[in-house]
Amino acid sequence: MKIGVYGSAFDPITNVHLWTASTIFHRKKLDKMLFLPSSKERRDKSLRSDDEHRIRMIQLAIADDSRFELSTEELDAPIGKQYTYFTMQRLKEQYSNDELFFVMGADILVNIGKGSWVQGEKLVEEHQFIVMARDGIDMLKTISKSPLLRNADDGRFHLVDKGLAMEISSTYIREEFSRGGEPRYLLPESCYQYILNNQLYLDTDS
Question: Which residues form the Cytidyltransferase-like domain (predicted)?
Fold first, then answer.
């Protein structure tokens, strides 16, 4: 099987997360997409809701789509092993007969290319990637300018332009909730109601 591993904070999961996953699934002819919420222990993440809430919102969002599955592999990892390289190593063991692709945005590709990710060089050397376009980022130029990326550019970077520059920031949604707004149609209705019922993001300032 061809499996996409879609890592994000999902704080909260949005309709664009789902649309992106569906687009990638179709374009790259995947058999499964894993939604991989980030660990709160990562130094590059600042999360506003507890793991249990993010897990539940993902479960609600993907409940009706058999192509999508939740993976808590990163959340369950021991301290120090919660970064993407270690997570992908464990997933490779779990899915030893399958082909894995780490799904990320072009902005993440830039960060990896700069060497700012833990074990970023090993991550690039040992895995395949599906990279989604972002406005203002030239993906080919990003690869060619980075020694780390260009020396591994043997077809492992599968570049995808979704064809529609539609982005919904989880930060924007959190801000709307904190100010009494109604970002109802930016995320699944089940998640919207869950946030209201659990009074999430009411005190966030970011």
Answer: 6-175
Q: Could you tell me if residue 200 is inside a domain?
A: no
Identify the DSSP state of 37.
E
The stretches in the chain having pLDDT less than 70 are: 43-45, 165, 204-206
Q: Is residue 37 part of a domain?
A: yes
For tokens 């997570």, the residue is 87
d(CA 204, CA 109): 28
Q: Does residue 94 contact residue 51 with C-beta atoms inside 8 Å?
A: no
Tell me the per-residue pLDDT of 170-196, one tens digit each, with 9 for 90 and over: 999 999 999 999 999 999 999 999 999
- On whether residue 198 sits in a domain, the answer given is no
pTM check: above 0.90: yes
Of 45, 8, 21, 28, the residue nearest 157 (C-alpha): 28
Domain count within the chain = 1
Residues facing 37 on adjacent strands: 8
Domain span including residue 139? 2-167
Q: Which residues of 76-105 are buried (b: 16+ CB within 10 A; e: fewer)?
A: ebeeebbbbbbbbeebeeeeeeeebbbbbb
